[in-house]
Amino acid sequence: MSELTPEQVKHHIKTYVLVFVSLAFLTIVTVGISYLEVSVGMGITLALIVASIKGSLVACYFMHLIDEKVTIYWTLIATVVAFLILIFVPLSAILDHTKI
Amino acid sequence: MDIPYTVKNRPDTGLYNGKLGIWLFLASEVMLFGGLFSAYIFLRTGVESWPSGSEYLDIPLATLNTLFLITSSVTMVMSWASLKLNDFNKFKIYAGITLLLACAFLVIKYFEYSHKFHVGYFPSYNNFLGIYFTMTGLHVLHIIGGIIVIFYFWIPGAKMWESDPERFTNRIEIVGLYWHFVDLVWIFLFPTLYLL
Amino acid sequence: MSSEHHKQSFLTKYIWSTDHKVIGIQYGITSLLWLLFGFLLMMIMRYQLAYPESPIPFVGSLFGESGILPSEMYNSLGAMHGTIMIFLGVVPLAFGAFGNYFVPLQIGAIDMAFPKLNAASYWMYFVGSVIMAIGFFVPGGAANSGWTSYPPLSNIATTGQTVWLLGMVMLITSSLLGSVNILVTVIQLRAEGMTWMKLPIFVWTQFITAFLLLLAFPPLEAAGVLQLMDRLAGTSFFMPSGLVVSGEVLTNAGGGSPLLWQHLFWFLAHPEVYVLILPAFGIVTEIIANNTRKPIWGYNALVYAMVFLGFMSFIVWAHHMYITGMGTSIGAFFQTTTMIISIPSVVILTTLLLSLWGGSIRFNTPMLFALGFIPMFGIGGLTGLPLGLAAADIHLHDTYYVIGHFHYVVAPGTIFALFAGIYYWFPKMTGKRTNETLGKLHFFFSMIFMNGIFMPMFVQGLAGVSRRLWDGGETYAHAADVLYLNEVMSVSAWLLGLAQIFFIVNMIISLFGKKTGEKNPWNATTLEWTDTTSPPLGHGNFEVVPTVYRGPYEYNVPGDDQDFTPQSKKV
Predict the structure, then answer these.
(1) Which tens digits make up the pLDDT trace of C396-426?
(2) Tally of domains in chain A
(3) How many domains does chain C fold into?
(4) Overall CATH class of domain B17-47+58-195
(5) In this structure, what are the phi and psi dihedrals at residue A19, rounded to the nearest 5 degrees?
(6) How far apart are CA A93 and CA A88, in angstroms?
């Protein structure tokens, strides 16, 4: 990132504007989905998909992840794995709980 | 002797120290908010009924807040890009707008909270409100932290641009990464609490 | 950071210092004092256990007129003993002190990546520990719901619990900042030629430990925030509906889950035990290589085993929760992962044992502690197996068997390794030598009395004696036959305390001893010994920043004129 030329930065700026427009649009989509008559499960899935797309745009372009090297990727992979364990394992535990 | 790679990238990792540092810190923040998201899922799964966000929360207001935060993310990265293009004045403008939008977010949050307290919806009322106040409250603390740091680089710390422009630009990049993360958390928090 | 000798005030040089060596010593002194305090708490508890409801000698006046330790206070001492030993003692010593002092030196760096952040981490630890101390002085005394702070009890407990939570938030933040520093330092500041597989094992262990702390601590911080909300804002995150306390129905909203706390707590606390042991593995490896005069057997296996251990540590935590009513599927999942995680530990111990084979062993004080570590950790690890198997755990959970198990790994385990490290690196940090006779006496008596305290615990646990009982099991018929062991363990504990006097005296007289002028008294190969003075230079550590050409344990290289070859010696 320290070695970007001014032309490269200007190109990046075009990307930032595009991403911003996408994010604004997807925000409206998110709110729109909430008005659809769907099951809770479907609602959660759709909301997560849209949020993940928005999050990926922020991470990849605003946070320059798409240009980053391996070190950051490994850190993030480890974090994502730990995060998924934290979310899904307690959930599995409560779903598998003995019903007295 | 100076500590190496504070400004220049280390060749094999392609990173300067501060950037790696902030990414690692953000990894820990993912786990912090992850703990709270896990708590939310655990609490919600454990009960028969859970209110929907619209019962207690103002969705249009929060949508506006979401747009404020997304815009502030763009202006933040633009402030960094301005420094890369050697335009210090543009940096000041974009950083200033970022601060303005961040404060606007806080103002709306203030109205949201005070309205709820006014009608007796305290965190202790039920677990939905409890987790709502806790998660958005922790998020607000992160916004405040971000405002303080961005303000520091906007005014008192801006003189580093004169003495060490490359290092100053890196610091703005690092602050930007933190700020984008705060936006990212909200991108997940908003649908989870308000829309589901 | 230039080499000009500008005059620094006492405050800048020794108190607000950003030099990793000074900060390492700050962590070291503070943590050793806390270890001593935590030990004293235990000695008081053990008096009550040996002689129930007798006035405590010396300090009895603190407990009221009768001098007898009240049961609520016993609970406080128990909860704080655990908290202090783990969070204020062992981890700050193993990670904050040794890590800060020696990681930069061993990788050829002039300091940590973020020196000011490093100083901030130490001071946050200090403030956090002061907050913990304040707990003893609030109404109701210090936290008394176990170091595990399970709700609903901890939710409704006295003020000390809130103080504990605030202290933990401070300590966790300090730890996170320290982790970031170690990780960036190891990734970015390795000297030229110091590739990953040339790193000393000590550095590997600190690196993996930092990752564990970084990712595992935040969920506990989240849980702490939730419990603070429960206690201060009246939320019900951990409070189920319909709770009755002392005959009165609670009026909170309910709908919460005590199990939520347990999941978030153990998500940290299980990786935490690997945080407790990994630095010990690192220190013991350094000392064994040095005192066998041969390379470590299975360097690669050691590294891969420890990385695998670190990863697995995130998916075993609910073996602390087998009896909470988990379904059989999830129970089987955790039992499987728990059994698997024992494998890397065995690999690690095996590489250390095989490293002794054919070695030219020097039995100095650090080596004695390092050798003592091996069987002690072996006992600790083996006794963990029945606990990891759900069926056996049903009988053993929350008994003295558990206490025996974890103390074996931490006390004659990690703490022996930390003593080994202190004796080993004392000459580097001070330029002076410790007294070998006192060191050996320290070792032998500590070894005997450690076993005197903890071996009987397995007997009591198997008989069914529960932990955290103020009267040591007196009221239970099933404990009658093993009750006599309480006095045995307590006497061993007090004698263990006395044995530490050899250490304290040794430290004092050695600190006031003569400088030997020796740079590398142990004839070691790693950079901190070969390329720095004793102690290392205040500004920048190295006269000339070294370049690395070799692995970390090149002892008795064929054809070499010495029995050790520094990492920085050209090929």
Answers:
(1) 999 999 999 999 999 999 999 999 999 999 9
(2) 1
(3) 1
(4) mainly alpha
(5) -65, -40
(6) 9
